[in-house]
Design goal:
Layout lengths: L3 E2 L2 E2 L19 E5 L2 H4 L5 E7 L10 E4 L2 E8 L1 E6 L3 E6 L3 E3 L6 E6 L4 E7 L4 E4 L4
Antiparallel strand pairs: 1-2, 3-4, 4-11, 5-12, 6-9, 6-11, 7-8, 7-10
Amino acid sequence: MTQLWKNQAFSISHADDSPPVGQGLRAFFEYRDLGIKDATQGKFGAHVIRAVPGMESPGAWHSHDLEFQMVYVTKGWVVFEYEGQGEHTLRAGSCVLQPPGIRHREVRHSDDMELIEITAPAQFDTRDEPAP
């Protein structure tokens, strides 16, 4: 049985033990699960998301049904557009808190783009949205 501390298990994720996979929300990204979902019984999720070189975003507007979503860019750059906020270029070291339900879209990214995404809960619904 897994030992829990305040409903969380101890968890470590090493890059060489959990390579990125193509299955995820967007086909133009690869996702590496950091093990937070299982360790927190689904309350939180964390992924490293990398661009698939040569693939582009269709720029579709969408929103997420969640309580918390934070993105921190570790490499390259990505342009997001947010409802009421306009376009923003995030580069290595940039961090954005995307409020629950905000309509947004990924406009473009560098082939070497890599970011960390933290969400609550780990699994959430995504809806296609009209442009604001």
